[in-house]
């Protein structure tokens, strides 16, 4: 955590230091090279200094792909800035490449004239072959136009740790990421203290590891100071306009964890979380398992069906119940979710979307589960669907999902995605007292009780704890009569309760915010997005507005039901553009619902949108 605004790292600047508003750096190497840890520590230090930060971790799906190959690469991109930013950046200005494969995979993204720092020790004949090179790109014209720094990272790390007793050469080589991080800290005028403190705490029981990483980090920093190989340092000042408060860096999965715990506290309920591990949702289970002291119960089920069954049971028993999965797991849970729809029990189902179909791209992002969560169950089974816009927004939307579930007695879907789940950004820790309570009342009066009697405003049925005297009741998945809940095959009874459930979900629109537009309230083009596309859309819209274009953006956080004013807003623009990481799912829904021309911008590459991709599409439409 850091109080903001923070001071700049140094009051005295080196005359060769070049100031930048923002810089994007990407670390890339084998999955065993510690790139995630390296990027994580660079991000933490930048956040402590008061920079706005946004990250994009990118790691392989294989447990251990062959070392030196492109499928085995692990990357971490950090965008740190003196102004507000919305994405991890379109293109890095600096690439730290731990092997030839990192050059092959990332060179296309690197900005022309960018800085490349390579571990030249890794450019062996075998590694070059694995990366598809006939000769070393360090020795031909492949990298012409870039500022290339050949650093023997492996050799320098071994030299720095030469007198550390009891370490094998292989163990010393594991510290070369610390050397690279130290060099990056020097290049960007970042202090070492945050990472040194991290080493002390993380490896407190392994003093040899603390010493080795500390030495390597300091050696990398010293190399930058003494090598005279760099034309100058880069400095990104801290932000000056930041809302006062206590901040921490947070990922989308971490925000969901804290949101569930906060919602349970606000509902004065124990939290039950039952799930089956699946990428990229597993960290939610891991995070909640560490918070049992906050009246949290976690259950790692043997499969997805057991997981949803446990959550249904917990909701029936009166707990605030939740589960999470990804697209394949949601498909397996679908029958149980449908049972929850019929039982009308409150629960939250988080879908952290990934590339599909089937196993697909487990560690890559996608937005292709919207139609699945809306219609991927048999029969008429509507559910409220929410989608977080940013990693930090996952906290607020998780609480909102829990509030809707309890208020309307219904399961609720919350959509996240691989980008939001793993991306990190500064989050201002809210005052818990400012979060309104969640009214979770249980009926105890048996007078006139029926299991499907309804609140006249929300159409919610009563939430009765099992064993409450005089309120014994039967519920199940068979067709039933509204009110009594008695099993009924009468056609009119079935249609009536189906329509009531649909009306209940539609009434959620009465209590959610209206759609708000960023930009002019009427004009030539409205860009509508949802989920993790928020940052790229917002940045592209700002860019186009600065060029005098008649364009606005609207980001939907409630996808079923839509905000009640959405039709009126859309009608004020000549055209609508919907960028999505799918083949046009929201675009299809909007085109079917509203009389407006909808243009789709679709991408299914397992990667988030770049700002320029959306800017170019906006420009082509308006031109």
Strand order of the largest sheet: 12-11-13-14-16-15-20
Number of helices: 20
Share in helix: 25-40%
Structural class: alpha/beta
Number of strands: 22
Please compute the radius of gyration using only Cα atoms: 27 Å
Largest sheet: 7 strands, mixed
Outline type? globular
Strand content: 15-25%
Average pLDDT across residues?
94
**How many angstroms does the end-to-end distance come to?**
46 Å
**Spans where pLDDT lies below 50 across 5 or more residues:** 1-13
Tell me briefly what this model is.
Helices cover 35% and strands 20% of the residues. With 623 residues, the protein is α/β, with parallel strands linked by helices.
Topology:
Elements: E1 2-4, E2 18-19, E3 22-30, H1 35-48, E4 52-58, E5 73-81, E6 94-97, H2 100-106, E7 115-119, H3 125-130, E8 147-151, H4 153-160, H5 169-173, H6 176-187, H7 193-202, H8 207-227, E9 234-235, E10 245-251, H9 252-267, E11 271-275, H10 282-289, E12 296-300, H11 304-316, E13 320-325, H12 327-343, E14 347-353, H13 370-375, E15 385-387, H14 393-408, E16 411-417, H15 418-422, E17 424-428, H16 491-506, E18 523-530, H17 534-546, E19 551-556, E20 558-560, H18 566-570, E21 573-580, H19 585-593, E22 597-602, H20 611-622
Parallel strand pairs: 2-9, 3-6, 6-7, 7-8, 11-12, 11-13, 13-14, 14-16, 15-16, 18-19, 18-21, 21-22
Antiparallel strand pairs: 1-10, 3-5, 4-5, 10-17, 15-20
Primary descriptors:
single chain, 623 residues, alpha/beta, seven-stranded mixed β-sheet, six-stranded mixed β-sheet, 20 helices, disordered N terminus
